[in-house]
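User: Fold this one for me? It's Acetyl-coenzyme A carboxylase carboxyl transferase subunit beta.
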Amino acid sequence: MAWFKKQKTTGSEVPPRSKGAEGMWLKCNHCREIVYRKEVDRNNKVCPKCDYHFPISVMERIALLVDLGTFKEWDAELEAKDPLNFHDTKSYRDRVKAQQEKTGRKDALMIGEGLVDGQPVVFCVFDFSFMGGSMGSVVGEKFCRAVDRALEKKRPVVLVTASGGARMQEGILSLMQMAKTSTAVAKLGESKLPFISILADPTFGGVTASIAMLGDVIIAEPKALIGFAGPRVIEQTIKQQLPDQFQRAEFLLEHGMIDMIVERKQLKETLGTLVAHF
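Assistant: Here's what I get for Acetyl-coenzyme A carboxylase carboxyl transferase subunit beta.
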């Protein structure tokens, strides 16, 4: 005779896992550890185990860098058209509309002016949540407008990138933004106005190949992935295994591709020092 009987349960009797409980934890993109969300939030969205800097929203970035209440956005109404009448699984127009509804923004770049430690600065900040921060015609146009106003007001420009690269739905028009934005940066150089580039995770593709790497000073956040093509594509092309931590900010600093790595909590202070120096 059995000492006990195991009760069989059907799938419907298993209590569902709480969505609230699932939302309490995050998986780090770098060390792959499970971390407590509130602890990450208290730490400026930085992993407490490996110091990986999680992506943050545009408004969180502005709050981090700009003096409270001083930021004024420019040209927020600009939005993408569909010059190629592009259609994959859905039309480009529908994709843009869906992203606008999700993010509350018209496109993937915010521009404006604000103060950093009391010093006037023009800001351009990529929004990765809008189609992966991809650079299309609107992003290129807004960046150039920001530069034009910086030239007019004699102010430095700070760019914060988080992007997957050029926007494929705009084809060659998207690729043209690489040359267009690079020309705008050249104008800043001719006018002796500083251009500071801050690379967040991830910064890839045509954005890396143009404006992101043209800064007079190039700063990266710790553990940020920065590159042009992805590691898998490179390995398949050159038929060799890539070095450990390839395309991480620390690797790029060691090989002279960037100037410094700055933790998020020290970023505003560093930026203020650079602006004052220039």
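One thing worth pointing out: Residues 17-21 have pLDDT under 50 and may be disordered.
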